[in-house]
Amino acid sequence: MSRWSVSPGTLVLVIAVVLGLLMIGLALMWSPRDFLTRRLATYLIAGSETFNAPQQFWLRTGVISQKEYSSPEYLVLQKRGWISASNAACSATSGPPPCWEMRLTPLGIGVLHDWVPAKRAATQYFSVPVARRQLVEVTGIVKEGTVADVDFQWKWNPLNEVGAALYAGGSEYTSTVQFVHYDDGWRVVESGVRKGHQSLDDAMKNASPTQ
Are 173 and 136 in contact (CB under 8 A)? Predict the structure, then answer.
């Protein structure tokens, strides 16, 4: 037997050490974000500032147009007894007749008191945060090179009594957003970041009801 011969046990140990070092090297070279899985897509979408931005409902009191008066949101608030309206002369900015004088009822003031401006005026325009998006699931990923289309479903979660009235149905929506693979891994395309790609902001604006 040659003095340079290696026992089978030692050879196995050397191979194991080499493979271990290779795996460590690969782990250092590759980021978990290099592999676009549904789990990663869920994490990136749900953690996005764009996705988590609350939905704002803008309420105008004073003289409003027929278009505003007949909007679904105003009809819901009237049905709840939070606002009331009467015929009014149109102003220069309210549009063609008919126009309406919109007021908060005492019940409406109680519901909306946190957002009604402290300084009362004949005409007021203020926002109410009513809902926040909840990601239901990522339903599919189609990759082509360094770009991927990700399909996902989401719904609105009401934040308060006004949101519960406006989003009472709990409907779910389907959107498609693009991801791009950068040097540090996959990223969801945010609003206005990359021209020619479906951003998360656009994906939610163009959402369709889930069938």
Answer: no
